[in-house]
């Protein structure tokens, strides 16, 4: 007798497998994986529990599910991640865009007029998600997207092309400020900020992400410190420095900036963590 693979039944089995594997958000992950395999929206999956899954699609879903059981990030399996209302291409060469970074973009964007002609720089651009989101929000702005990783820049190039922003986003391979020239209205960055000793304790999903995008050195400031030390030389008068950091780092950085003549404020994220530093040179 041939087994009918119905959506609700397959989802239930997949959720149980992911729960047993210790996966984060097993129910949501099962739904997203099945939606990807079927080529439909997650909403369709939720609304069509009695729909039958074709045999070839079922096999594809099983392969994807096995990868998730092994701890691979959902974004690596499906190949994209939503970010600021846009679909961003993601591979193992870049950090998966996160909701907190969306908040960073929104906080920075609030300081500028939508139709203004600005020059922005996105340091440690990774997938290019911040640069793409800013170029999308500000149609007259140009953005420099810089990163040390050649592999990451290739992914960023894919995202820039996918959103048809080649004429307004320039890519640059640079170790922090090494190859950067010019001045900008905004310096924005989600740099590597995890202290090296803490990397081993990260979740299985995060362990699959590139160490270069995570490792902030012994104290977590190995990239942020030189980024901030030279930032005033790359900002136009009244320009904004906007950074994302981890819990416990924002206030020490803000105080350090104040000591060298910056006016800095700390903002909390949606989880009530003091994560963002917004600063202007006095």
Q: How big is the Rg?
A: 21 Å
DSSP E strands, number:
9
Total number of domains: 2
Write down the overall geometry: elongated
Quick synopsis:
This protein has 282 residues and is of the alpha/beta class. 38% of the residues lie in helices and 20% in strands.
Description:
The chain has two domains: 7-71, Helicase, Ruva Protein, domain 3; 80-281, 3-Layer(aba) Sandwich (Rossmann fold), CATH 3.40.50. Helix content is 38%, strand content 20%. The protein contains eleven helices and nine strands. The chain has helices spanning 7-20, 26-38, 42-47, 55-69, 74-78, 99-109, 129-137, 150-162, 204-207, 224-229, 250-259, and strands at 80-83, 86-89, 119-123, 142-147, 169-173, 184-189, 235-244, 262-268, 274-281. α2 packs antiparallel against α4 (55-69).
């Amino acid at each position: 007798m041939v087994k009918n693979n119905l959506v609700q039944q397959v989802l239930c089995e997949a959720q149980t497998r992911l729960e047993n594997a210790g996966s984060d958000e097993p129910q949501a992950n099962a739904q997203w994986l099945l939606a990807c395999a079927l080529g439909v929206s997650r909403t369709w999956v939720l609304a069509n529990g009695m729909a039958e899954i074709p045999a070839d699609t079922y096999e594809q879903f099983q392969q994807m599910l096995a990868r998730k059981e092994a701890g691979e990030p959902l974004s690596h399996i499906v190949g994209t991640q939503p970010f600021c209302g846009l679909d961003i291409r993601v591979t193992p060469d870049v950090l998966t865009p996160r909701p907190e970074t969306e908040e960073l973009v929104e906080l920075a964007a609030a300081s500028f007029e939508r139709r203004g002609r600005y020059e922005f720089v996105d340091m440690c651009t990774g997938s290019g998600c911040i640069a793409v989101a800013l170029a999308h929000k500000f149609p007259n702005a140009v953005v420099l997207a810089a990163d040390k990783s050649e592999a990451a820049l290739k992914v960023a190039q894919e995202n820039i092309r996918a959103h048809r922003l080649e004429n307004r986003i320039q890519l640059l391979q640079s170790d922090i400020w090494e190859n950067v020239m010019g001045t900008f209205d905004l310096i924005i960055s989600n740099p590597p900020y995890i202290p090296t000793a803490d990397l081993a304790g990260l979740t299985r999903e995060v362990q699959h992400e590139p160490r270069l995008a995570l490792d902030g050195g012994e104290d977590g400031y190995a990239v942020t410190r030189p980024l901030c030390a030279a930032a005033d030389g790359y900002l136009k008068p009244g320009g904004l420095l906007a950074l994302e950091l981890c819990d416990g780092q924002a206030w020490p950085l803000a105080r350090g900036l104040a000591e060298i003549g910056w006016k800095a404020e700390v903002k909390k994220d949606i989880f009530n963590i003091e994560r963002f530093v917004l600063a202007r040179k006095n």
